[in-house]
Specification:
- It is a single chain.
- By secondary structure, the chain is an alpha/beta fold.
- 38% of the residues lie in helices and 16% in strands.
- Strand 5, helix 4 and strand 6 form a beta-alpha-beta unit.
- The radius of gyration is 19 Å and the shape is globular.
Length: 378
């Protein structure tokens, strides 16, 4: 089990170094922008500040009392998802409008998950964002409840095109893309499309440097590991070896240990999260998708893409991320951008790992909701 955990970390991004704390200006969330009467998914109950902080769902703090918006239940998410056919493949997605229906102050948002995740990974964020925006979330091809076609060659470019086609055919309105990990990179590729006018803004949560580690060869840690990465690619292309490794990785305790290693807030690693990751991994085609993604081409480099993006960009980075640490080449690049271009802002999130939106969602909402409300009207 320990070997599976360590090998998965190697396959994904980088080894954990000591990370510095970089704090940006703290924006207070205006509670007046959140309606007091919300949908049935809202639980208006009092709790201690400490308990609320542990749950990660603090929306308002007042005299040691808090107003909480509960996450969507996983079964509820499954029940309200829809299907969309893209190039002959079935794609799972969610549309969630909350109390105010289509009358929203902020543009729609599309949530794009990271490696191994799905729509349900945003369960702690959808109800909050839906108070001011129509929220869409999508399962990328190969993940979640979307198709996992055997023999499909997964690429970052394919996922980016899927996102653009979804905006064009389903959302049909200028949209803010919010991505985590490889989902962030897919959003960057989509937003960099010079002909695209459907991306209104871009939010990157610990953006990946590529679909796999082979994109980051200028980091000394990856240089040391690169021969091992090539060996792993070769081994994973042997079906018996890949099946054995994948079977070990998708066991509940292995997944829990992997998640605990990349989350700063360990209390967010609950049974629901483990099942959110595990259930799609049991589906037909999941092994083929895993091998194709890990051994495939890393895709376009964000260093070449970001200068092409002129829309507003918000970068949120967990300072305890072992996969894309802030002192690694990807983290250093993104942290340097706000001083170079005016359309990009950055906030470091203390005590947060690779998946900030699920790790400590209150910190993400505190930055994201005001940023969305401040976007230019056109």
């Amino acid at each position: 089990m320990g070997v599976a955990v360590k090998l998965t970390a190697i396959l994904h991004h980088q080894l954990p170094p000591q990370l510095p704390n970089i704090l940006s200006h703290h924006h207070k969330l205006n509670p007046l922008s959140i309606p007091r009467k919300l949908t049935g998914n809202l639980s208006c109950r009092c709790a201690s500040t400490a308990a609320a902080a542990a749950s990660g769902e603090v929306i308002k703090e007042e005299d040691d009392q808090v107003l909480l918006i509960e996450p969507l239940a996983v079964d509820e998410i499954k029940g309200i998802c829809s299907k969309w056919v893209w190039r002959g493949y079935t794609i799972n997605y969610l549309k969630y409008e909350g109390l105010n229906g289509g009358d929203k102050a902020s543009p729609p948002v599309l949530l794009v998950h990271g490696f191994g995740a799905s729509v349900a990974h945003w369960r702690r964020n959808i109800p909050t964002l839906a108070q001011t925006s129509t929220v869409y979330a999508i399962d990328l091809l190969g993940f979640g409840a979307s198709d996992k076609p055997v023999g499909f060659e997964y690429t970052m470019e394919a996922w980016a095109q899927l996102i653009l086609d979804f905006l064009n055919e389903v959302v049909q309105s200028p949209t803010v893309l919010v991505g985590n990990s490889v989902g962030s990179l897919a959003c960057v590729i989509a937003a960099a499309d010079a002909q695209n006018s459907l991306v209104r803004g871009l939010v990157l949560l610990n953006c990946a440097g590529g679909m796999n580690n082979k994109a980051i060869v200028d980091d000394w840690r990856i240089k040391l590991l690169f021969p091992l990465l090539l060996l792993i690619d070769f081994l994973l292309k042997q079906k018996a070896i890949a099946s054995f490794f994948f079977e070990r990785v998708r066991q509940r305790e292995s997944l829990r240990n992997i998640l605990l290693s990349v989350y700063g807030n360990k209390e967010s690693v609950d049974d629901d999260l483990v099942e959110i990751i595990r259930e799609p991994a049991l589906a037909e085609g999941a092994l083929d998708a895993f091998v194709s993604i890990v051994t495939g081409p890393p895709g376009p480099n964000p260093v070449q893409l970001m200068p092409q993006i002129k829309i507003p960009v918000l970068i949120l980075w967990g300072d305890e991320d072992p996969f894309t640490p802030i002192d690694g080449p990807v983290g250093k690049y993104f942290s340097s951008l706000p001083s170079q271009v005016p359309n990009i802002s950055l906030s470091m999130l203390q005590g947060v790992g690779h998946c900030p939106h699920d790790d400590r969602p209150n910190l993400v909402h505190d930055k994201l909701v005001p940023w969305l409300s401040a976007l230019p009207s056109s």
